[in-house]
Amino acid sequence: MGRYTGPKTKVSRRYGVPLFGPAKALERKNYPPGMHGPKGSRRKQSD
Hints:
Blueprint: H1 8-15, H2 25-28
């Protein structure tokens, strides 16, 4: 199994939880990454 070397902060911001340890990026930018992130609506989670 390989080590994940991708954008850890971006993935954490996408799901709104710190996945890779304590993430200060969620404190600074608490919205999803990307062009449509700051618009305020999060995706609805399935049951």
